[in-house]
Amino acid sequence: MSLTPTLADWQAKAAALTANLEIRAFIDDEFVAAASGETFATVNPATGDTLADVASCDAADADKAVTVARAAFERGDWARLAPTGRKLVMLRLATLMESHRDTLALLDTLDMGKPINSAQSDVSGAIGCIRHQAESIDKLYGEVAPTGDDTLALVLREPLGIVAAIVPWNFPLMMTAWKIGPALAAGNSVILKPSEKSPLSALYLASLAREAGLPRGVFQVLPGFGHTVGKALALSMEVNCLAFTGSTGVGKQLLQYAGQSNLKRVYLECGGKSPNIVFADCKDLDRVARHAAEAIFYNQGEVCIAGSRLLVENSVRDAFVDKLLAAAESMQPGDPLDPSSFMGAIVDRTQYERVLDYIRQGVEEGARLRMGGTSLDGPGLFIGPTVFDGVTDDMVIGREEIFGPVLSVFGFDTEEEAIAMANNSDYGLAAGFWSQDIDRIMRVTRRLHSGQVFVNNWAGGDQTVPFGGVKQSGNGRDKSHHSLEEYSELKSVWMSLSP
Ligand code: NAD
Questions:
Q1: Rounded to whole angstroms, how far apart are CA atoms 394 and 431?
Q2: pLDDT at position 2, please?
Q3: Which of 71, 195, 215, 414 is deepest in the core (most CB within 10 A)?
Q4: What is the CATH number of domain 275-462?
Q5: Does 301 contact ligand 1 (Cβ within 6 A)?
Q6: CA atoms of 325 and 261, how far apart (whole Å)
């Protein structure tokens, strides 16, 4: 294989890998079939080929995993292990992920259709997260409260118990790492439920976690559907926390399940319809147009922080949209295994039909289709970059999360109007804008209702900076020490001192 793998190299690797996939659940340190014996097919959306029939867990498997997780927690060989000890095991896991990085990337590419280059950067992000959280845990101090001389009041941080991590398919490994990194570092037992559309990298990760030395039952993986195993975990009286990334609709259901069961903590990272605002005073229209195209078409638009609403100041709108179309032209989908592909396949037929439905609706609503709008020929599920201009707030394509390569362009005349349009959404995950005016930068940054604001960039991020939303985009924060703190409980200890 050459130093930089080619399409042929990846195809050869894929053929070898798919002949030998782990398809069983990981419970109590063993790979096992689902209790029911049921399986579900996971399909490569770029070819239509079934990759594997994977164990379809349900409530019985959830019960078993919860019992095992509780026993592991009470045993304490992880929960009460000194943080430096947990750090070493997690650093070993990160090193193992590093040495299996091509396999992990390939599994996500085959399972959900993302280009291999993006999958590789996801693996780097996942490793970075595991390392960061491992390195953080032995630097998190408790407190001695400033009480009087007759008492010593300590504020201790303790793990929550069992964390069920329920994750989506668009960044399978990276979303997994954002949950299990801090939850494990904090000393919890973790049960991971990957999406039924992309279970393979999670199962591979389980074998690496075992090799790294995570004690029995501390990390388990239950592949299966949301309404079966996911719901069972969410309703469990023993699970202490749901760490969720996915749609707003399912997030709302999880809050109900928590209320119906044991008031478990529910951290939600949900959907978005993020505004990307181009002011006429931005520095370089060509550069901004390229970034605006990447902001929506990266990962086929299947990105929670996709810049799916592009708001352009009317004085530069026509010129800007022409530049954007030119940039998008070079982002056509291709074979996900080809390192030169910018976009890959849409995850499955349901999502593919959903995106095409939105495109039809956009045309019916009277938005101007400037590019794309069609699927490509072949057995794979490919949709080209699609751009609608003249979109207004009352159109469905301007309001709802499409989660595909479809951009809605709006025009505005004033800063005030742009801010009002940007904030006119149920979501508040990300917002960005482009301007060279420092006064405007401060004004607009403060007024955008969003968990993260990108100024003169799109999708800036680092392990040190929290990631999460406001409004119906959720209430949790992934990454940074803020996420680590979410997975621990404060315990106040009062000690009376003799005079
Ligand atoms: P989804 O909500 O359909 O599924 C997410 C997970 O929840 C899956 O594992 C699914 O099996 C499970 N699930 C579904 N119903 C359930 C139920 N009743 N009980 C328990 N679990 C259940 O979302 P998706 O289609 O997998 O992912 C796309 C969504 O994820 C988009 O809305 C996207 O914006 C969002 N997302 C958000 C972020 C973020 O950080 N905010 C990141 C990535 C994706």
A1: 19
A2: 54
A3: 195
A4: 3.40.309.10
A5: no
A6: 50
Please state, for a pLDDT cut of 70, what percent of the chain lies above it.
100
Give the integer Cα–Cα distance in Å for 227 and 225.
Answer: 6
Contact 79, 189 (CB under 8 A): yes
pLDDT at residue 226 above 90? yes
Q: Does the reported pTM lie above 0.85?
A: yes
| Mean per-residue pLDDT of the chain | 97
| Spatial contact of 6 and 13, defined as CB atoms under 8 Å apart | no
Q: Could you tell me if the CB of 102 is within 6 A of ligand 1?
A: no
pLDDT reading at 185 higher than 90 = yes
Pocket of ligand 1 contains residue 193 by CB under 6 Å: yes
CA distance 126 to 282: 33
> What pLDDT, in 10s, does the model give residues 305-339?
999 999 999 999 999 999 999 999 999 999 999 99
**Nearest alpha carbon to residue 97 among 218, 221, 211:** 211
**What's 214's DSSP letter?**
P
416 CA → ligand 1 middle, Å: 34
Q: Which atom of ligand 1 is nearest to the CA of 403?
A: 31
Do 7-270+474-491 and 275-462 share a fold?
no
CB 312: neighbour CB atoms within 10 A? Answer: 29
Query: Does the domain at residues 7-270+474-491 carry the CATH identifier 3.40.50.2000?
Result: no
C-beta 226 within 6 A of ligand 1: yes
Ligand 1 proximity of 170 Cβ (cutoff 6 Å): yes
CA-closest residue to ligand 1 atom 14: 226
Domain boundaries, the chain: 7-270+474-491, 275-462
| Whole-number pLDDT of residue 3 | 73
According to DSSP, residue 358 is labeled H
Name the residue of 198, 304, 346 to mutate for ligand 1: max ligand atoms within 8 A of Cβ: 304
Local structure of 244: helix, strand or coil: strand
pLDDT tens per residue, range 188-209: 999 999 999 999 999 999 999 9
Average pLDDT over residues 45-73: 98
- Which is the closest atom of ligand 1 to the Cα of 166? 9
| 51 vs 65: CA distance, rounded Å | 26
Confidence category of residue 86, pLDDT binned at 50, 70, 90: very high
Which ligand 1 atom sits nearest the alpha carbon of residue 401? 32
Asked whether 170 and 303 are in contact (CB, 8 A), the reply is yes
Burial status of residue 9 (CB atoms within 10 A of its CB: 0-12, 13-18, 19 or more): middle
